[in-house]
Structures are given as structure tokens and as C-alpha cells.
Structure to design on (481 residues):
């Protein structure tokens, strides 16, 4: 029985975050606007209209190329990629061919603690196309998106598993968001995928002699479904002794099922030639150095540092560092604190604090809760001044009002009750109200003691020190501590 393994390459398209389009002054913020209201003769491809280069978009492309450890072409140029499609008004796309801005880079990914590099072939700049809207028996065209700056990141066929593709996609999204060059919002089409996938026999050398491309994948979850579908489809064919057709396939629906569209084009089919209306771009050392200085600590480096500096578990770090803003907020909280405090704050952060943020649909920076308040809450809890139950209540109140945990504890009289004399009265009341449980405990079912502890916590509204409460209960029932 033949066993097949996937050989996968990925092309990722990222809309660059600029005010204007790539080759004209039209606004690049097209989403939700009335169709064909963000256009001009240049992005509509009208005769005689001449393009001019958006310098900010080039900065963004260089920045991403450097962040992905790419070499930079000191001389780069634009090319015409010729093909016909209704939403391509000029009949060609201004892209890059043999002199991309960046080349020979890599993205480091981590799968269950196992780190490996996915090679990046090229990072180049191009323009987006318009949008086709298919309704019944006709197609409508909206050119608002036409000409929006688009960065394309092309990988080598280094992926061997679905998990690697998904992690690479997520890491690339984190990187561009850290850099601030794209929001990579897939619901708005700001990050899209083209998949190249084939199968080969396990253990065989080299690459398969065919390749299937799947275009216009708009989400990471659908990307995963497409890969699984294609692996199954191609496996069935290969087991029958049939080689899958080298073709371009499209999505049938969000289930990940693909359908044949056309035989796959090669680069010669696009008849690339240098764009005659745009000059070559000289990228000197000074330009590269300026962009390099703008690159922040990236998510992979930040995760490694957090693990070493704060001793936090890998899964907790991943949640904290999913965005630059979130990681910065956390660092403001734990700056100068011990590893023990950082670990506690990290657990509160990814647990109750994240729940409050998600429920209120707020970002960390928009919250009234100041970073140091999480440290304060941790200290109140660890010192025994408030119980875990009360700590959750205090966090919620601080989140709503912006008051400090200490202030809330004093105002509401929430400090934990550890005075045995005071707790004895509460324990006696609880024992009297639960004679059946008392009888069970005296009969040897000691785990029921925890039920009584819970009742004491309930009576004191979470203020009782649970350890002291259990000790008092055991004394009253003459049990061994």
C-alpha cells in the first residue's frame, strides 16, 4: 500500500496599510464604500493615465522583507503581468518578476516545541485587482479595491504537514501586525492565500512532477480544509495509478472542496516585461538602515525572551504575545517584578482578564484596568488578604470602574477573614444547618468537609480564609487536621 506525503508551498497576499493606492492618489481605505467611488483614470486603467509609485508602500515591503530575514535587491523594478480577467481593468497587473524587493528569507515556526524554518523565496510589491460580484446570470464589477498596495510573500515548498502551514500563516499574520504594515484582517480581504500542493511517495527524493494551485482562499480555517480536501482527492487518484492534472482550482464553498478552473499557467503565459511607465528603484544602504531601525522586537524573539526572562509557560506566552499591544501592556505590569509574580500575572491575564476583555469587546489599551492593578491583585491574593473568589470580584470591579484593587477591598470591606473567633460563629451556624453532612463526616466520609468549607465561604461571601475555615471545622468536629 502506497503512503503519500504532501509537498506544499504557499503564496500569501497582504494588503499594505497606506492612505493612498499603490500607483495613484485614490484612498486605499475602500472597505464598505459605495462601489466604484474610490477610483480615478489610473486605477481604472483608462488610456493615457500614468502610474506613480507610493513610497510608503515600498517602505512597508522592505520592512517585511527584512523582518523575514531576506536579502534586499539594491535595484528593483516593476513588471507587467499580462492576463485577462474582468476585474483587471488594464489587462495586466503591475507586479514584480525577476527583481523582487526581497529574496531568500525564512520564517521560523514552532510546532509543539519543535522549531523549524520555512524558506521564503521572495517578497515583492504589486497592486490588487478589482472585485467581481457574481449575481444570477451576470457579474458586477467594483474597482474600489483595484490598485490597493499588495505585498506577496512566496514560500518554498517546505511544508510537510497541515499544522506547519497553519502555524506559518498565523506567525506571518502576527509579524505584519507587529510591524504595523497591515491589519491582515481576513474578513476584509486584507490577507489571502494561494496554495500549491502535490503528493509524493513517502521516502522518495525530489519534488513531484505536477503541481495543483488553489486560488483565493480567504481564511486560515478554510485553508486548512482545502489542504485536507486536496490531500484526500489526490491520494485517491494516485492510488488508482492516475497522476493529478496540473491545474488551477477554485473553491466550491467554505467547506474547502475545490473545483477545476483551468490548466495551470507558467510564468511564460503571463508574458512578463518591464513596466515602461515606472523607473527602476534604487534601494541604498541608508534606506535599508532607516527601515531596519523601525523594526520592533518581533513575536518569535519576544516569546523566547519572555520564556527566559519571566519563566512563563509557552502556551501562556503565545496568548500574551499574540499582538504587540497586548505584550506591551503585560510588560508594563510586570516590569521590575519577580518571576513568581510574572507567572501569576500571566495566569490572571490569559484567564479572567481576557474573558472580561472579550465579553466587553475591548482591547487591552482601551481597558480602565491599569497594568499594575494585576500585580496589586496578585499580591492581595498571594498574601491571603483576599480569597480567590473575592479576587475575581475585585478584578471585575476594577475593570468596570478603573479603581485600584486595594481601594475596592477597603471600600467594600472584602479583606479575607482569618480570625478563628469570628469564623467559629459562622462554622457553628453551618454545622447546625447541615446535620446530614456532619453525620456523613463522622461516619468516615471526610471529603464532605470541603462541602462545609464551601458553605462557610458562601456565608461570608467569599471572605473567609478557606484554610482557616477548614481548620475550625475540623476542630469543631474533633477531626485530625
Amino acid at each position: 500500500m502506497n503512503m503519500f506525503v504532501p509537498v506544499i508551498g504557499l503564496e500569501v497576499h497582504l494588503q499594505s496599510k497606506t492612505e493612498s493606492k499603490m500607483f495613484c492618489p485614490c484612498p486605499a481605505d475602500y472597505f464598505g464604500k459605495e462601489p466604484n467611488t474610490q477610483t480615478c483614470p489610473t486605477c481604472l486603467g483608462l488610456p493615457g493615465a500614468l502610474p506613480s509609485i507610493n513610497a510608503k508602500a515600498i517602505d512597508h515591503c522592505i520592512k517585511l522583507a527584512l523582518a523575514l530575514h531576506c536579502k534586499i535587491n539594491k535595484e528593483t523594478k516593476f513588471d507587467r503581468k499580462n492576463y485577462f480577467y474582468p476585474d483587471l481593468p488594464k489587462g495586466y497587473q503591475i507586479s514584480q518578476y525577476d527583481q523582487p524587493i526581497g529574496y531568500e528569507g525564512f520564517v521560523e515556526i514552532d510546532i509543539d516545541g519543535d522549531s523549524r524554518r520555512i524558506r521564503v523565496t521572495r517578497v515583492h510589491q504589486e497592486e490588487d485587482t478589482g472585485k467581481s460580484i457574481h449575481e444570477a446570470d451576470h457579474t458586477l464589477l467594483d474597482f474600489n479595491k483595484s490598485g490597493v498596495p499588495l505585498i506577496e510573500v512566496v514560500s518554498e515548498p517546505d511544508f510537510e504537514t497541515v499544522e506547519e502551514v497553519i502555524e506559518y500563516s498565523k506567525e506571518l499574520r502576527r509579524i505584519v501586525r507587529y510591524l504595523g504594515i497591515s491589519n491582515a484582517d481576513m474578513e476584509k480581504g486584507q490577507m489571502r492565500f494561494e496554495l500549491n500542493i502535490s503528493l509524493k511517495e513517502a521516502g522518495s527524493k525530489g519534488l513531484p512532477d505536477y503541481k495543483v494551485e488553489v486560488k483565493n482562499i480567504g481564511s486560515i480555517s478554510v485553508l486548512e480544509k482545502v489542504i485536507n480536501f486536496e490531500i484526500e482527492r489526490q491520494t485517491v487518484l494516485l492510488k488508482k495509478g492516475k497522476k493529478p492534472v496540473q491545474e488551477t482550482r477554485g473553491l466550491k464553498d467554505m467547506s474547502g472542496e475545490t473545483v477545476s478552473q483551468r490548466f495551470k499557467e507558467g510564468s511564460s503565459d503571463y508574458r512578463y516585461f518591464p513596466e515602461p511607465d515606472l523607473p527602476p528603484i534604487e534601494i541604498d544602504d541608508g534606506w535599508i538602515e532607516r527601515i531596519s531601525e523601525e523594526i520592533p522586537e518581533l513575536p518569535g524573539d519576544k516569546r523566547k525572551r519572555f520564556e527566559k526572562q519571566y519563566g512563563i509557560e509557552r502556551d501562556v506566552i503565545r496568548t500574551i504575545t499574540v499582538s504587540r499591544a497586548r505584550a506591551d501592556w503585560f510588560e508594563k505590569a510586570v516590569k521590575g517584578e519577580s518571576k513568581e509574580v510574572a507567572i501569576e500575572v500571566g495566569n490572571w491575564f490569559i484567564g479572567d482578564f481576557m474573558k472580561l476583555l472579550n465579553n466587553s469587546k475591548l482591547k487591552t489599551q482601551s481597558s480602565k484596568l491599569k497594568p499594575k492593578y494585576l500585580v496589586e491583585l496578585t499580591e492581595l491574593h498571594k498574601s491571603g488578604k483576599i480569597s480567590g473568589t473575592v479576587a475575581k470580584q475585585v478584578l471585575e470591579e476594577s475593570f468596570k470602574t478603573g479603581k485600584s484593587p486595594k481601594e475596592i477591598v477597603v471600600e467594600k470591606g472584602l479583606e479575607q477573614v482569618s480570625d478563628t473567633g469570628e469564623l467559629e460563629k459562622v462554622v457553628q451556624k453551618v454545622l447546625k444547618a447541615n446535620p446530614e453532612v456532619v453525620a456523613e463526616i463522622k461516619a468516615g466520609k471526610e471529603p464532605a468537609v470541603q462541602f462545609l468549607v464551601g458553605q462557610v465561604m458562601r456565608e461570608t461571601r467569599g471572605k473567609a480564609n478557606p484554610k482557616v475555615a477548614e481548620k475550625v471545622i475540623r476542630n469543631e468536629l474533633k477531626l485530625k487536621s
